[in-house]
Amino acid sequence: MALFDCTQEALSARARALTYETAHGSFQTPMFMPVGTSATVKGVTVGQLRDLQSHVVLANTYHLSLRPGADVVEQAGGVHRFMSYDGPMLTDSGGFQVFSLADTLKLDNDGLTFRSIYDGTKVRWTPEANMAIQQQLGADIAMQLDQCAPYPAEKAFVARAVDLSANWARRCLAAHDRPDQTLFGIVQGGMHLDLRLESVRRLCEIEDESLIGGGRRFGGFGIGGYSVGEDHDIMFETLGQVANALPEDRPRYLMGVGNPTTLVRAVREGVDMFDCVLPTRTARMGTAFSSTGRMNMRNAKYTRDFGPLDPACTCPTCQNHSRSYIRHLVKQNEMLGGILLSVHNLHYLLDLMRRAREAVLANSYEEFYGAWMASPAAKDY
């Protein structure tokens, strides 16, 4: 396979199984990406990520550009060498973090100005500047700078965000020229199907114009602006139509979604890639995914429960430690508790997507989906 080639190996209704080639190896979908915001997945070593058979790790442009600085990461040899991870990596644009800090943000058509959360320094980003930073960081996949509208928001506000995001997508694609890195465009539009489809149309138009002019195409497409406060059932009113409006020959990446049932449902709608801080963040709070539903390890019922965390799980945590011991660690605020639960939760999502892929390859995804939704594991909220 050539660099950034995408091969569709199987289709089961709308669910897809893809293989995608990057400069640091190929990855297969459906797949979940652990989030390594500051070039580290919190509480999990690079060796553990390899053992868990993680494919793509996500890092955050906002945080890395401010600390330690994109120039430091570049001098280290790029984000892969900086964190000693030799698999594929993706950097988000950092736009979501900027827009979540609206009280420090000044937005205009040319770009945005904000203050660093670390020292208050004023920072100016244009689409071109953001591309330069992500090319310094050197991940295999970069994301365009976009405007993520909050929920709820007036439709006119969301429409302006779609227009701005499309204009910035054009500028990002024109500015992005690192040959061993590809750029994903991002669909916006809130919960409005017409705006979502308009966003898709604009991205495809931008790509066509680029190719006519001898430029590059998008290597894939992010679907942003979901899971920003709405009920997930609202998201699913439009997600399938949005995903399937995107080109079939490249990955579709639902950004910032990470609870197991939502992943299973979204794969059924044609989504290929996911990321979220949920598995490690909830682990640090003492919560575990399991085949019997979400578990709060602070509960007293686990005090003398010497069985494995999840008898159906093969991760190192479940193979070596009891519910009683993990509850003890959590109650004592020992860092090992969050580490063991992080390893488990990541394994759980990675393995879930592996089994989803097997179901697609066997053309039995509807059966897989039905069995999941009927199981106690689906009660993961």
Can I get a quick summary?
With 381 residues, this protein is an alpha/beta fold. The chain has 15 helices and 16 strands. It is 42% helix and 18% strand.
What does this structure look like?
It is built from 15 helices and 16 strands. Helix 6 runs parallel beside helix 7. The chain is globular. Helix 10 links the parallel strand 13 and strand 14. The model has no long low-confidence stretch (mean pLDDT 97).
Pick out its properties.
single chain; 381 residues; alpha/beta; 8-stranded parallel sheet; 3-stranded antiparallel sheet; 15 helices; 42% helix; 18% strand
- How many individual helices? 15
- Average pLDDT confidence is 97
The tally of strands reads: 16
Gap from first CA to last CA: 40 Å
Helix content: 40-55%
Spatial order of the strands in the main sheet? 4-14-13-12-11-10-6-5
How are the elements arranged and paired?
Elements: E1 6-12, E2 15-22, E3 25-28, E4 31-34, H1 46-51, E5 57-60, H2 61-75, H3 79-83, E6 89-92, H4 95-100, E7 106-108, E8 111-115, E9 122-125, H5 127-137, E10 141-143, H6 155-175, E11 182-187, H7 193-212, E12 220-223, H8 232-235, H9 239-245, E13 252-254, H10 260-268, E14 273-276, H11 278-284, E15 287-288, E16 295-296, H12 316-320, H13 323-331, H14 335-361, H15 365-373
Helix pairs in contact: 2-5, 5-6, 6-7, 10-14, 10-15, 11-14, 13-14, 14-15
